[in-house]
Structure to design on (1055 residues):
């Protein structure tokens, strides 16, 4: 036995030794649009609690580098083309540099650059789905939690435990004790964790279109707005496009947690519109959503445009207002709005704008835009956008940080970027890519996309044994249904 | 055992290995290649760590390491032979007593595992797990480890090998019976999966029966566990007092058991095999390596019957520009035998992807390849698929994505050189100078975009042909699609686009059939339709109207489109 252990140990060490030596940078090692360092952390603003922004020099042939980080009297150097910053020194420097800037200089690059350290704290971490960006069939996927102060990533649930797919998940403004997670496949269910109790629900009722899909928690935690979508996929034959995901029908509904009842109203379940992407205003009295005029698909797929709308909501009675107001008329402006996310101060809504359709992740032209709810002014968020896709996004619980999904690296694999948001000015800072321990190979080796990323204010306590048990069980708590009064 | 018996035993073990080798090398060779194409073994610490992160992961990693050599069938057969013979030898080495009867019985776990390995979804890591567990048992006996160390090894072995550690746990003190140690050992091995369900994202059943013993994670593979339990029982059996049994008795019994095994193995192993699947794997292999002539030869030897095998044959015919001439000499099962519809499966989309690739439908080839890979039940990746995905991304101009696939292939043993060559070509801007990529990129659609639709296949292939008249595969597929759908009007319409440049047997037969349905005689018949086929059609109609049986018609006209039109794909 001991001999066998020795052999496996030797193999492991040999494998590690082969893989860990720092080689000179070779051409094409990083994305074609990479700057002098990858990820591009030049001039970014970070929270004091962020994990080290490890990076790598990108110029082909670079084999040696000395990088110096300095703030005031503090300074340390890192040797090598892969700049792996010592965690303790990094954290100590960040704390000292709150509200100021760290200067980074290098023997490889002529000009030093800065990293600004914000005084605003960021949430504990992020939760996201990881899956390979593909078509209809899925392999391994799961919901994962990443601590932002370190490189720790842990699986909350994976589809190795059951046959199916984990899908949209959401917390109430990052509060991990209020957690919603959708499972698709043979064991389809919506898992709801409320104050530590986890149950599996059947969200399909006789009076609604189908299962609940895109969730958004009401700020008071007593409702969850859901869309229900009849979604299909199509596959392009041209090289600049791959996939088209579209709805053939969709409606909105609000789940009343206390009474275990789905509430809907004719004005958000119209035959003449496909409604989707619900979100509540921070005061909980407005329900935002997107809607499109149905058109025949696939012939008119490029004419499907989602407008941005709002309707009143009374949390005391669970009543949906009568009048739908169109805030952005997509038909008039020849654009399509998806993923509207209000800032928590109620002043702005950030949304994804694409040429058509509602599944912007497969649209290279998709960008983030912001609507000022006070002035009605709309503008593209140029500092966040890239020539490729920007899509899913959200604010941190204190509204000071913003995460977005972008395919700017290679046009296919979605990565997470984080930006600081100043609600006074409505301005964002240059976003930084979610840092990883091994900057050189991590994103290259990861064949998975980050999907539906959300901030979390603390670790999600998902009882995996209970989750497994209730998913495998055929029993589901049924949703009730009522029309809005 | 005397010297003669020892040599006889060695000879029998060697003979067993030779039998296994011959079986996998000559009888079941495509099964070997099949195993290799559903994994991507990377020589990286990250891969090692990810595979080893579940119980049984180390054995699985070793198994995957070995399977990468299956790219060459003889190497794979040799590995199977050495592993199965290894199980037998190790099983015998763990025995406390040595005689011919016990020697013969030591083949049982190896035979059980051989049967197990005949299933295409069985993973070789299970055999490695049994070997590691038997090795651990043998080592603990040889080094006379104390009970505490032996017990400590149980969870370690469970982590390395998974539940195949059962053999170790059950026979832990077969060299000196201690009830307390045995009880503790059984408790430990039973506790491991229970504890594991709180640590790993696996079900209790998976942790109890092996996470990576079988390609389908929610299907229980009992055979490795049975083999382990049998090995443990035999080990205990060997620890009994054999002094009361006369040597001659055990010898005769041993020879008898050996003869029974020798006689039974062929039929027992055959019962575990599925030669229908082996046939499909063969076509898949031939298409993968573009062995078009061998594909046609294989079909001539035995008619293919499934959509996967028929579509492979049709692709081979088209690649040899023989589809119009010879297609209906082989069994045809309708349009599905040309371009099978998409199924959420990891096997059949691969040869279909080859067809789309050779047609120039790069995105569709990419989708089918990707979907096949994603459908691999144990969630592994595939070197074969990565290679094709790198190619499709290069043609699509998505070079950063192509680089990712090439980087992964660069970590493998057998795809490294190709990946490095392609990588070099990309960096020097000459990726599309590669003859295959250049050819396919010239075939692809440039002026039209639409959403793929299986119901409008003729339109899609027609556009390929319209945009590039030299796309001979598209021309043949378009004609064939219409013929297989029995849409003669559409066929005539499409054929008018290429009439004058090509005329093949089946096209002539279809046009004659169309002519016969709208004319009373041969007056005015186009010149290119005239010839011996006219009188043969007359004979066909005569026999058909006379009510000849299907068998008779097949005998006389089985190689014609007319037979397909009236008797197939109804």
């Amino acid at each position: 036995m001991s001999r066998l252990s020795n052999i496996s140990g030797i193999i492991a060490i040999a494998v590690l030794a082969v893989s860990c030596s720092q080689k000179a940078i070779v051409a094409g090692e990083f994305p074609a649009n990479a700057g002098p360092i990858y990820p591009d952390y030049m001039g970014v603003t970070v929270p004091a609690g962020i994990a080290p922004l490890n990076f790598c020099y990108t110029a082909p042939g670079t084999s040696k580098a000395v990088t110096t980080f300095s703030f005031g009297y503090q300074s340390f150097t890192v040797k090598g083309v892969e700049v792996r910053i010592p965690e303790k020194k990094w954290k100590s420097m960040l704390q000292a540099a709150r509200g100021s800037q760290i200067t980074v200089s290098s023997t490889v690059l002529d000009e030093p650059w800065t990293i600004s350290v914000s005084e605003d704290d960021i949430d504990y971490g992020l939760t996201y789905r990881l899956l390979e960006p593909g078509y209809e069939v899925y392999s391994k996927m799961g919901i994962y939690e990443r601590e932002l102060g370190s490189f720790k990533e842990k699986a909350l649930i994976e589809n190795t435990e059951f046959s199916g797919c984990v899908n949209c998940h959401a917390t109430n403004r990052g509060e991990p004790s209020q957690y919603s997670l959708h499972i698709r496949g043979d064991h389809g269910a919506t898992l709801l964790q409320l104050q530590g109790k986890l149950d599996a629900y059947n969200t399909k009722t006789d009076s609604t279109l189908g299962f609940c899909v895109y969730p958004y928690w009401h700020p008071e935690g007593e409702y969850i707005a859901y869309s229900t979508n009849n979604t299909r996929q199509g596959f392009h034959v041209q090289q600049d496009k791959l996939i088209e995901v579209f709805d053939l029908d969709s409606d909105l509904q609000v789940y009343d947690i206390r009474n275990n009842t789905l509430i809907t109203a004719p004005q958000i379940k119209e035959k003449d519109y496909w409604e989707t992407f619900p979100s509540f205003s921070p005061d909980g009295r407005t329900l935002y959503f997107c809607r499109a005029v149905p058109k025949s698909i696939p012939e008119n797929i490029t004419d499907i445009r989602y407008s941005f709308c709002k309707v009143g909501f009374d949390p005391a009675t669970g009543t949906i207002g009568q009048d739908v107001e169109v805030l952005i008329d997509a038909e008039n402006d020849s654009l399509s709005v998806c993923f509207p996310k209000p800032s928590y101060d109620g002043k702005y809504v950030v949304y994804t704008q694409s040429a058509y359709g509602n599944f912007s992740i497969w649209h290279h032209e998709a960008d983030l835009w912001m609507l000022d709810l006070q002035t009605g002014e709309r503008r593209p968020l140029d500092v966040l956008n890239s020539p490729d896709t920007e899509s899913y996004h959200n604010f941190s619980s204190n509204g000071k940080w913003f995460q977005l999904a972008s395919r700017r690296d290679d046009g296919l694999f979605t990565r997470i970027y984080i930006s600081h948001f100043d609600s006074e000015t409505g301005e964002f800072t240059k976003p930084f890519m979610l840092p990883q321990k091994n900057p050189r190979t991590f994103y290259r080796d990861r064949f998975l996309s980050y999907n539906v990323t959300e901030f979390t204010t603390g670790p999600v306590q998902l009882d995996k044994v209970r989750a497994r048990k209730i998913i495998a069980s055929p029993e589901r708590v049924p949703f009730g249904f009522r029309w809005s009064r | 055992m005397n010297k003669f018996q020892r040599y006889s035993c060695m000879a029998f073990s060697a003979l067993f290995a030779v039998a296994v080798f011959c079986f996998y090398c000559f009888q079941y060779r495509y099964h070997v290649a099949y195993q290799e194409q559903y994994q991507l073994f990377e020589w990286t610490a990250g891969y090692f760590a990810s595979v080893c992160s579940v119980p049984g992961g180390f054995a699985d990693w070793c198994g995957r390491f070995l399977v990468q050599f299956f790219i060459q069938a003889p190497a794979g057969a040799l590995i199977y032979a050495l592993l199965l013979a290894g199980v037998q030898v190790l099983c015998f080495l763990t025995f406390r007593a040595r005689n011919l009867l016990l020697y013969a019985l030591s083949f049982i776990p190896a035979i059980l595992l051989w049967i197990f390995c005949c299933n295409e979804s069985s993973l070789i890591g299970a055999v490695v797990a049994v070997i590691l567990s038997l090795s651990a048992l043998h080592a603990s006996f040889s080094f006379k480890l104390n009970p505490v160390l032996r017990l400590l090894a149980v969870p370690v072995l469970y982590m390395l090998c998974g539940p195949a550690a059962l053999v170790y746990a059950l026979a832990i003190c077969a060299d000196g019976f201690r009830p307390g140690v045995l009880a503790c050992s059984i408790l430990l091995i039973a506790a491991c999966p229970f504890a594991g369900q709180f640590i790993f994202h696996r079900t209790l059943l998976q942790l109890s029966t092996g996470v990576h013993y079988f390609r389908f994670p929610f299907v229980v593979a009992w055979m490795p566990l049975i083999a382990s339990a049998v090995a443990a029982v035999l080990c205990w059996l060997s620890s009994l007092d054999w002094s009361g049994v006369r040597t001659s008795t055990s010898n005769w019994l041993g020879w008898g058991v050996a003869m029974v095994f020798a006689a039974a193995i062929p039929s027992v192993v055959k019962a575990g095999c599925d030669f229908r699947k082996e046939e499909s794997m063969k076509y898949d292999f031939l298409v993968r390596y573009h062995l078009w002539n061998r594909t046609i030869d294989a079909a001539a030897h035995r008619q293919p019957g499934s959509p996967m095998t028929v579509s492979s044959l049709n692709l081979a015919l088209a690649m040899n520009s023989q589809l119009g001439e010879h297609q209906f000499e082989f069994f045809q099962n309708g349009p599905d035998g040309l371009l099978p519809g998409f199924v959420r499966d990891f096997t059949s989309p691969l040869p279909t992807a080859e067809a789309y690739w050779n047609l120039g439908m790069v995105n569709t080839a990419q989708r089918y390849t990707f979907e096949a890979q994603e459908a691999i039940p144990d969630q592994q990746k595939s070197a074969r698929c990565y290679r094709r995905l790198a190619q499709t991304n290069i043609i699509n101009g998505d070079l950063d994505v192509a680089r990712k696939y090439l980087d992964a292939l660069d970590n493998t043993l057998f795809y490294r050189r190709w990946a490095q060559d392609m990588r070099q070509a990309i960096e020097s801007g000459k990726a599309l100078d590669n003859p295959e990529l250049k050819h396919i990129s010239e075939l692809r659609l440039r002026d039209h975009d639409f959403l793929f639709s299986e119901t409008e296949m003729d339109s899609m292939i027609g556009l390929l042909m319209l945009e590039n008249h030299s796309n001979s595969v598209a021309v043949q597929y378009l004609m064939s699609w219409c013929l297989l759908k029995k849409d003669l009007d559409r066929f005539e319409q499409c054929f008018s686009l290429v009439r004058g440049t090509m005329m093949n047997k089946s096209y002539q037969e279809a046009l004659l059939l169309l002519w016969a349905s709208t004319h009373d005689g041969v007056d005015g018949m186009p010149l290119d339709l005239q010839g011996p086929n006219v009188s043969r059609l007359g004979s066909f109609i005569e026999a058909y109207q006379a009510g000849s049986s299907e068998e008779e018609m097949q005998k006389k006209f089985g190689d014609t489109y007319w037979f397909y039109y009236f008797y197939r794909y109804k």
Remarks:
- Chain B touches chain A through 61 residues (CB under 8 Å).
